[in-house]
Amino acid sequence: MKAKDSILARFGLPLLVAAVLLGVWHFSVVISGTTIFPTPWEVVKGIGELASHGLLVKYIVASLFRVTWGFVLAILVGVPLGLALGWFDRAFMAINPIIQVLRPISPIAWIPVAILWFGTHDAAPVFLIFLASLFPIVVASTAAVRNMQLVYLRAAQNFGLSGIQLFRRVILPATLPQIITGLRIALGIAWLVVVAAEMIATQGGGLGYLIIDARNAGKRYDLVVAGMVMIGLIGLGLDLLMRRLEKFDEVRWGVGQR
Amino acid sequence: MSLRSTLLIFGLIWIAAITVLHGTLNLEWGKPEAKKEKFAVGFIPVTCHLTCPVTDFINQNMEGESFFKPMRFSGFPELKEMFLSHPDKMPATFILAPLAMSLREQGVPIKMVYLGHRDGTAMMVHKDSNIFKIEDLKGKTIAVPSRFSNQRLLIFKALKDRGMSISDVKLVEMPPPDMPAALSVRAVDAVTSGEPFMAQTEMDGYGRILYLTKDVWPNFISCVLAVHEDAIKNRREEVQALVDGIAKSGKWLDSSMDNRMEAGEVVAKKYYNQNPELLKFVLSKPPDRVKYTNLNLVRKDLEEIEALGKEGGVLKGTVRFEDYADPSFVTDDTQVKPWDYKGKGVQR
Questions:
Q1: Chain B: closest CA distance from residue A99 (Å)
Q2: Cross-referenced InterPro entries, in alphabetical order (chain B) (predicted)?
Q3: First vs last C-alpha separation in chain B
Q4: Are strands B92-96 and B39-43 parallel, antiparallel or unpaired?
Q5: What is the mean pLDDT of residues B222-227?
Q6: Does the structure show a pLDDT above 70 at A1?
Q7: How many domains does chain A have?
Q8: Owning domain of residue A225
Q9: Chain A interface includes B84 (CB < 8 A)
Q10: CATH (domain of A61)
Q11: Which of A28, A90, A240, B134 lies at a 20 to 30 A Cα distance from B299?
Q12: CB of A254 within 8 Å of any CB in chain B?
């Protein structure tokens, strides 16, 4: 593929698809004559209205704050737990079943529990995001250790490595690519549950809160869709950031050359 | 840079930055702390709870600061969970009367101390539908906000008064914010909930009133002010101030249409985040669509709800007026004077 083709393909084609979809959206609203569902332009105006009131920045910051803390806490708990479960068979046998029971429970089901434990301030949404992103991280870290090629371990042990040394110089680097993949999935999920998590926020706003609040505001479906669009765009941005991590040498060597 | 130092540096800067931003933008960090923890009261953005923000707003305007803190929720389930589990953080709330009775039956130590409103509910049908009287509802699907809503019991009563029964209609539960859209696409035949969601369908041109509460159950009550018993015991003065404030707000709201328009404007913009025209519509068309006077706890009114609740299967009938109500904060209604607050007219 020629260089100029590839730039055209990378940016032109997605933009073309987006334009077609926006067109379909616009004309479906116009043709159906609905007065409830907004056109794309009305959504853009809704975003403009939020921005002019200073709410857009506030809401984005609030959501990013909750996702950041929920996700960071999930990493701090999930990665060590996953590595331990992968390494110690007994621990795996004891703890894995309960993890598999908790894993499929939707964050929405946890909302009442979150309110009972934490009230309605930031701790409750952070807890929900923590829960939602914890399990993918634990599962990915556990699998990373259990799938590690034994040849690395044997070689390292032949060189006399053990304990912390073995962990730092062999296990962690060998499992890192898979853990990073797990983190990427987990961050996607963390951002996904922001709407559910912010159903309970009574102060501080947030993009998920915006959607719930706009429903209460009567016919403000332009703001509902505006919230959805912002969540989508920021989610894309977060994923692009996470993907950059995979470009580091420490991660690449385990991925295999492509 | 290596992965580890990049992650460490970038991660720490990010966490610090987003935390500080959130603190300053959303949590009012750096602002002087209030001297005393305010008395928090839960509400949701419906006109049945209007005296909550009105009292807060008038207080702020007259005293410079409010004595209580209104806490807004998006729906009754979350409000109820917070009220149940954190009496220290939210000792009082506006809540559906049958729900308050049911919580009491289940042993939750709360009591109603005052009413939130009178009337303020409608049943809406699509303007093109062939439903013109209550009898026409036979076989139709009606959306109600919750099993514990008094709107559901209102249907029981309306049907019973016409020799029909609840088995003649099909009830579905639906969050009130979703009702206007459901009616517009005719996913259901009729919707009923507190305002302003019903007026929304009328303002948008596809909803028609089948009945207002005054046609079926005059002086209807859906929401009451409930308080934890701990607060009744230990924070008596604050509860009394709240009840007095609500009583004065109610009188203020019902004393002139100008006050109602002022309230519609202020509450829509500052508290409910709704279209001010919608709230003004509810408060004026007709003016007795919702009322805020005559808010004393009347045994007969609550016992009627109690009986219907038992019939409707949401109450067991194990609690009496003395168990779920504490009228000791209520003063003589005729002696209550409205706030001496002249609306300044909000900046439009």
A1: 27
A2: NrtA/CpmA_ABC-bd_dom (IPR044527)
A3: 54
A4: parallel
A5: 92
A6: no
A7: 1
A8: 37-251
A9: yes
A10: 1.10.3720.10
A11: B134
A12: no
pLDDT digits (tens, 9 = 90+) for A103-125: 999 888 898 888 888 877 888 89
Domain at B121-216, CATH class: alpha beta
CA distance, residue B70 to nearest chain A CA (Å): 10
Closest CA–CA distance from residue B132 to any residue of chain A (Å): 25
Average pLDDT value for residue range B103-113: 90
Determine, yes or no, domain membership for A192: yes
Q: Is the CB of A237 inside 8 Å of chain B's CB atoms?
A: no
DSSP B47-76: GGGTHHHHHHHHHHHHHSS-SEEEEE-SSH
Label residue B157 by pLDDT band (50, 70, 90): confident
- The predicted structure's pLDDT at residue A257: 43
Quick check: A217 and B272 CB within 8 A? yes
* Minimal Cβ distance to A36: which of B82, B181, B272: B181
**Do residue B196 and residue A205 have CB atoms under 8 angstroms apart?**
no
Q: What is the pLDDT of residues A158-179, one digit of tens each?
A: 887 777 878 877 888 888 888 8
Q: Do A250 and B275 touch (CB under 8 A)?
A: no
Spatial contact of A207 and A227, defined as CB atoms under 8 Å apart:
yes
Q: Does B68 touch chain A if contact means CB atoms closer than 8 Å?
A: no
Indicate yes or no: pTM above 0.80.
no
**Which of these ranges, B76-85, B196-205, B339-348, has the smallest mean pLDDT?**
B339-348
Indicate whether A257 belongs to any domain: no
Domain membership flag for residue A126 = yes
B86/A204 touch (CB, cutoff 8 Å), yes or no = no
Residue B125, pLDDT > 90, answer yes
Please answer yes or no on whether A218 and B14 come within 8 Å at the CB atom. no
For every residue of chain A, DSSP letters joined together read --HHHHHIIIIIHHHHHHHHHHHHHHHHHHHHT-SSSPPHHHHHHHHHHHHHTTHHHHHHHHHHHHHHHHHHHHHHHHHHHHHHHHH-HHHHHHHHHHHHHHTTS-HHHHHHHHHHHHTTSTHHHHHHHHHHHHHHHHHHHHHHHHTS-HHHHHHHHHTT--HHHHIIIIIHHHHHHHHHHHHHHHHHHHHHTHHHHGGG--SS--HHHHHHHHHHTSS-HHHHHHHHHHHHHHHHHHHHHHHHHTTSHHHHHHH---
B82 closest CB neighbour out of A36, A69, A120: A120
- Per cent of chain B over pLDDT 90 is 18
Q: List, by residue range, all CATH 3.40.190.10 domains of chain B.
A: 39-119+221-335, 121-216
B239-290 pLDDT, tens digit per residue, is 998 898 899 888 888 888 888 888 888 888 888 888 888 889 988 888 888 8
Under 8 Å between Cβ of A109 and A131 = no
Q: Is a pLDDT exceeding 80 seen at residue B79?
A: yes
Query: Mutate which of B273, B279, B280 to test chain A, going by most A C-beta atoms within 10 A?
Result: B273
Q: What's the topology of domain B39-119+221-335?
A: D-Maltodextrin-Binding Protein; domain 2 (3.40.190)
CA angle B125, A37, A204 (to 5 degrees): 100
Q: Does A219 touch chain B (CB under 8 A)?
A: yes
Share above pLDDT 70 across residues of chain B, in percent, rounded to a whole number: 96
